[in-house]
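Suppose a classmate hands you a notebook page containing two proteins, each written out with its sequence and a corresponding row of C-alpha cells. How would you begin to make sense of it? This section walks through that situation. The first entry is reproduced here exactly as it would appear on such a page.
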Amino acid sequence: MTSTVPNAVEHADEQQPPITMFGPDFPYAYDDFLAHPAGLGQIPATEHGAEVAVVGGGLSGVVAAYELMKMGLKPVVYEADRIGGRLRTVGFEGCDESLTAEMGAMRFPPSSTALQHYIDLVDLRTRPFPNPLAETTPSTVVDLKGESHYAETVDDLPQVYRDVADAWGRCLEEGADFSDMNRALRERDVPRIREIWSRLVEKLDNQTFYGFLCDSEAFRSFRHREIFGQVGFGTGGWDTDFPNSILEILRVVYTEADDHHRGIVGGSQQLPLRLWEREPEKIVHWPYGTSLKSLHPGGEPRPAVTRLHRTAGNRITVTDADGDIRTYRAAIFTAQSWMLLSKIQCDDELFPIDHWTAIERTHYMESSKLFVPVDRPFWLDKDEATGRDVMSMTLTDRMTRGTYLLDDGPDKPAVICLSYTWCDDSLKWLPLSANERMEVMLKSLSEIYPRVDIRKHIIGNPVTVSWENEPYFMGAFKANLPGHYRYQRRLFTHFMQDRLPADKRGIFLAGDDISWTAGWAEGAVQTALNAAWGVMHHFGGATDAANPGPGDVYDEIAPVELPED
C-alpha cells in the first residue's frame, strides 16, 4: 500500500530520471516550458491591455490569468464563490488559525512538476502526507469484515495483503506494459510512449477497471479483488473506481500520481491566493508592481457568470450576477463543464456540437470529507498492553472508509479527517448534517478502537463537504467511463482552434476535468497553460523558437485519434 507501482520499478536504480506527469496521451514537457528563460510567449504590442475573460477562479483560472497578465493582456476573472476552487482550505470556528482542513485537494505527488513550479514560485513549503503505510506514517490499521490488523510496514500485514499487492503488479505488467511505459515516461522517450499508448488506447478504451482485473490471471481470486477494492495500494481502496475506464487508472499508475504524496504547509488554497496577489518580476506592458488583484477593482474578481453568448464580430459576451454585460475577443472557461449545462445560460454556438456532446457525457465522481479539531495528536500515545499506537491511519470497509491523522507536533492541537469517501460511499452521507455525520463516524471508529475516547479530545465543531452537493461544482472531479476517450480528446484538444470553424473560436476550455489527469492539480495547471497558449495565438502572438509551446509541437505529439465509424 506504499506504492501503486510494481516492485520491479519501485526498487529500481535510484539514479533513474524522476517521473513526471509527462503523458502518456500528450507527452509535452510543461515543466521545461515553464522553466525556460525565454518565457511562455509574446503578443503584438498593439494588443497590449486587451481584456480576456477568465471564468473560474480556481487554480486553472488563476494560473491562466497570471500568465496572460505577464504577456501584457488584461485578464478579467469571474468567480462565483471564492478564489481557489477545489483548493479549499478552511479553519475551525473558535480554534487557533493554524488548525485547517483541506476540503478539496490535500495531497500532491512529486510527479506534478508543473504544479511544483508554482508552489516554488510563491514560496510554499510541503511535507509528507500521512497516507496508509507511507514511510512517515507512524502506523496503519486495516480493518475488514470486523478484523483489524496493525502495521507499521507492509510486512506487518497478513500474507494475503502482500499477495494482493503482488497480483496488482503482475496485472499491470501483463495487461499494460507497466515497466516499459514507466521507463519511457521517465526518459521522455516520446516515440516509445506513443507506440505503447496507441496500442493500449485502442485495446482498452471499452474496458472497465474491474473488467481489466477480472481478465488478469493474477486476479482470478474474487477475494483478492475484494481486498484490493477495499484497501488498495497507494492511497487506499480502489473499488469506487471499478466502473471507470481502465485508461484513467493507467494514467495514474504510470506517472506515480498516487505515490509519495506531500501536503502544502498551511493549506493548498494559499497557492491560488498567493498567485492572485503576486507581482511578477518579468511583465510586459503593465508597470512593475502589477498583480491580478491590482487589475481588479477592490482586489476582488467579478461575480458569478450567468450567461455566455456570441455576438457580432465573433466576440464572447459575458453577463454576470450583478447584471453587468461585457464583451471580449477571447475567454477561458475553467469551471466544471456541467456549469455550462445548468448554471450558465449558453448559446449553442459557443462550441461545436460534438464538444457539447462531450461536455454532456462528462462523468463526475462524488466525494465527501469530515474533519474535527482535537487538543493534541493523542494517537501517538502508546497502548500499555500492546506497546502500539492507540490509534492509526485507518482503512476500513465500515462507513468511514479512510481516516487520516494530521498533526504539527506532539504538543500542538491537531486535526482528524474522520472520513474520506467516494461515490456510493459519499452518497450515504449526503442527507446528514456535519454533526450527524460525526456521530456515525465516531461509532464506526469506536468499534475499531474500543479503548479510545476520541470524543473527549475534540475541541471544536466538525467541518464537512460533499462535493456533489456544492452548487458550483456538482462533483469532485471527472472520471471517464469506458468508451469516453473520444470525448476527452475533444475537450483536451479544444485549445487548438485553427482546426475549428472560424465562428467557433475565441472561447477556450481549461481545468482539471479537461485534462487527461482529472482530480490532480497538475491537470489544472497543464490545461491552463494550453489555454494561455491558445489565447496568445488567437491574438497573433507566438512563443520563442527556443521554447515552443504545447500548440507549436501539437502535430508531433497529438493524442491518439480513434475512428468514430
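The notebook's second entry, a different protein, reads as follows.
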Amino acid sequence: MNPTSKVTDGEFEFNSRWEMTAPQIRTEVRGTDIDLKSYYAQLSTPFDSKGEQLTAVDAGTKENPDLRPSTVRGKLAVIRDETAAAEYDLAEKAAKAGAKGLMIVLPKGMLAWTPWKPTDTRSAIPTIRVDAADGAELLQYMEKHKAVIDISGTVESPYLYDIRAIWQHQIPQDVTYTVSDRNTAQVKATYTDTGSLDWSSEQRFSWRPYSDYAVETSRWVPTGKTRTEYVTSGDTQWRHHVDFLTNPWPNIPLLSGLRDAPRTFKAGEKATEEWYKAVVRPSIPRGFSRPSVRNGDLLSLAIPEFTDAVTGHWARRALPLDLGGIGGAGTPGTMDVPTYPQGDTVAAVLYRDGEKVGEAAAAWGDFEIPAGAAGYRLDLTTERKTEYWQTGTRTATSWTFRSDTAAKETLLPLLQVDYGVRADLSNTVGGGKRHDLDLTVRNQDGLTAPTGVRLKVEASFDDGKTWKGQVRVKDRGHNRFTATVERPGEHRPGAYVTLRVTASDKAGNTVRQTVERAYLLGK
C-alpha cells in the first residue's frame, strides 16, 4: 500500500485484517545478538511452555548425521538438511540418542516458517526449523563458542488479537496502528472440553459496513481453557464460529460447530463467551433470525439441533464430508479421517390430532398441513456418536401446540427451555450431595411470555433406564425455576446425569425434552 492524499469526492477506506497470538517459540543464543528466527516443524512436539535452556551441538547433515549419545545426549542437535524431507525421521533417531531437541537448518531459498498443527502423531522430540542464513550464523558461532539456547514461547496462547486496522479518507505516511481500549473490546472466551480431544477449532468472521462477504481460515484452540481475546470495536461486525472437533485443514470451513449472531463491540467493552457449556440440546435460541411460523397451511420450521447454555449459540446437524485422499482413514484430531465430521442422526415427525402428517431429517424447512385448526405434536430426536462428544449425546424433544390457518406469517407457540448448570470446563458438576439447576421457560422471540407455566424435572443416573421421581423444583417467578438434583449414594463420580424436563403453559402448549448425559458428576 502507498500513502495517498485525502479524497475530495466520495468516501475512501483502507483496512487490513490481523490475527495475533503469543509467540509459539523463541530461541535466543545466550550472550549474543544473533537474530535466530526459528519455527516449529508442522507436527513438532512442543517444548515445555515454562522455558528450557539447551546447549546446541553440531550434529552434521542429514546424509551424515552425528547422532551418537556422547554427542547429543541432553542437548539440542543441529542438523543441516538439504532436502527438508527427513525431519521426523531425524527426530526419532536423535531422541533414541538422548537429544532433548532437534534444530533443522534448511537449504538456501527455503522458508523456515510452517504452520504448527496440534493434529496427527507428534515428532519424537521438539523439532524446530531455521533458514540457511540463520543456521550458518549459529554454526559459525558454535565453532568457537559454547552456544546455550534459551527457548521460550507457548503453543497454547493465553490471548488472541482479532484486529481490523482501519484508515479512513486516506492512507497516511505512517500506517502504524496502535491497539488500545479506545478501539478494541476484551472477550473472555471459554472453550469447553467436549470429549477426548485436547484441541478444537474456531474462526471469527468480520465484515465492514460495505462488505458483502467474509473469508477467514480456521484456527486451533486448546479445550478446557479460557482465553483473553481482543476484538476491534466500532462498526466492524463479527461472528464467532467454534467447532468441537480439531479441523486438520485450516482452509476447509468448519462444518459442525456452534456460531453466534453477527455483532459489533463497543470500545473498552468487557464481554464473555462460553462455548459448548451444558446443557447442549435442540432449541430456538434467543435472537435467532429465522422464526418458526405458520403461513396459510404451511409450517415453516427452523429449530437448530444444537444450542448450548449461552444465548445465541447454535448449530445445525453435521453432515459427513468425504475428503477423499486428503487424510486417509482414521479419526478427527489425528488427520486420518475418512469423513469430517462423522455426521449426526436427526429425525423430525409432525402429528396433527394424533395422525402423522409429515416427517423429515430435521425440524428445518416446510411442512404442508391440512387447513383449519388442530392440535399438533412435533417430535425431534438427535444423536451424536463419537468419543469426541461426551455430553448431550442423544436428545428427544416433543412440542405440542394448537394452530389454525393463518392469513399471514404467525409465530408458533413452541415452548423453549433454557438451562443453567454450574459446571466446569469439562461440563462436570463437582462435589456435594446436591446441586442446583437454573431453568427458564420462554417462547421464541416475538411472542409474549407464556403464562401459568408449570415445570417438572426428572433425573436419571443410568442413561434413562431408571428415573429418580420428580426433582424438587422451586418457582422463582417470571418463568424461572431452580431444580435441586440429589446425587444417589450408589453412583460414584464419573456418572452422567440424564435430564427429562416437562413444561406447560396456561394455553395448553407443552414441551418435553430428554437430554441423555446432559452433564457429568465429579468428585
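A careful reader of the second entry would note: Residues 322-341 have pLDDT under 50 and may be disordered.
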